[in-house]
Amino acid sequence: METISLSKLLPFLCLVLFVGVELIQCSVTYNRKAIVINGQRRILISGAIHYPRSTPDMWEDLIQKAIDGDLDVIETYVFCNVHEPSPGNYNFEGRYDLVKFIKTIQREGLYVQLRIGPYVCADGFPVWLKYVPGISFKTENEPFKRAMQGFTEKIVGLMKSENLFESQGGPIILSQIENEYEM
């Protein structure tokens, strides 16, 4: 069996360490022209994968198809109606395992745009919300804002606890709350 000397192995290990650090930590900012990642202006190509509409065993293949299509970012909604089916009771099991989905994307080297919602077009809100006294949906309404703040804080807290935001070394470079808001 042939042995490899440390002097031959050291440059390779340094390269792996350098590349690994580059992949794990990045700086994401923006200016009036572009998103800037690690000091470089980037045009990011993204595509959507709605994890609750597939099964965990499908996620790697779907992500690979995104890679094959030269995507940089996977955009996904966080569905309030499936994650909080009743007030304060959360479901992150099986196809609703948001953390597992985000970590699968991270393993494949893509970024994430997390669209926290809580309203997701045709998927709407959890049914229980209509029974909240005084609620008026998608407005400057205190009962609505309180309910949605709880959901948003739950999701943000979960992502932070798993170190999934870019500032923590994770793949989430963009997050968005409520793109369907009406005044």
Automatic annotation (TrEMBL):
EC number, UniProt record: 3.2.1.23
Domain Glycoside hydrolase 35 catalytic stretches: 35-182
A Pfam family that the UniProt record links to this protein: Glyco_hydro_35
PANTHER family named among the record's database cross-references: BETA-GALACTOSIDASE RELATED
Keyword line: Glycosidase, Hydrolase, Signal
Protein source organism: Liquidambar formosana
Protein name: beta-galactosidase
The organism's place on the tree of life at top rank: Eukaryota
Keyword Isomerase listed: no
Lineage: Eukaryota, Viridiplantae, Streptophyta, Embryophyta, Tracheophyta
